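Hey,
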Amino acid sequence: MAANTDADRLYHMVESAKEAIGYIQNKTRDDLDSNRQLVHCLVRCLEITGEAASKISAQLKNDNPQIPWEYIVGMRNRLVHAYFDINLDIIWRTVKEELPGLIENIEKISN
């Protein structure tokens, strides 16, 4: 059975974020318009990141306000529940610009 500690959840967040970043290597924003598989991969990684964030303890969240917990979980909820209305510009910007900093912040609190 999988463990459900904050450390496990942080690990899942980092791994799924790194995976998303890996998917966009040598890609451009225009690739999202023509590659549905890429879109699905990125969306799934963001869903996992958000789901893991939603399971982090309130204490850890309160101790680390530099991480936008509500935004991360909110994006997950939007992707899952409004799947028919996903803004690909936001997906691209999140993966390209936001995830590297998120990984850095999580790795700081994980060590």
